[in-house]
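Hi team, as promised in this morning's meeting, here are the two structures we talked about. I've kept the exact order from the run log so nobody has to guess. The first one is mostly here for context; it's the second one we should focus on when we meet again. Sequence first, then the predicted structure tokens.
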Amino acid sequence: MKLIQRCLLVLFAATFGVVHAATTIYVDSGVADDNGDGSSLATAKKTIQAAIDVAAKNDTILIAKGRYLISSSLKFVCL
């Protein structure tokens, strides 16, 4: 019986995936580059596109006051 329960649990996890906890990604044009993980202002991404690229469904992107050069269209997907 326990084997069946384990198999069902694995099947459920594989079918529905792991739930992503919403996170906040920070952007600050004043930092040197996009190497930060974006998890705080101290480790912010430099560009809005870099934040979009790492964002997942239900994440929030906070953009610090500053000047941002948009040289091409931002590319994002609404999930």
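And here is the second protein, the one for discussion:
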Amino acid sequence: MKNKQQRAKTRAHRYFDLVWHNDVLGSSKDPRTRAYAWLARKLGLKRSECHISLMDIDSCNTVAEICKEKLVRSAITID
């Protein structure tokens, strides 16, 4: 179970990091902070509760899909 959870967290971070590294939310001042605030809103969480390290497998999979969709809409290449 732990390996599955770690893989899910790694996948979620992979896509989330692409969102903020590519500044797809348009906040070059602090794109990481803005990305976490955006993700918290999408998940219905408080910003202080929005940490991938605290999420279960299903939540991590949701994060990955939300971020993947945002990247595709922003024409960012993902593999």
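Starting points for discussion:
The chain has three helices and no strands.
The CA atoms of residues 11 and 48 lie 21 Å apart.
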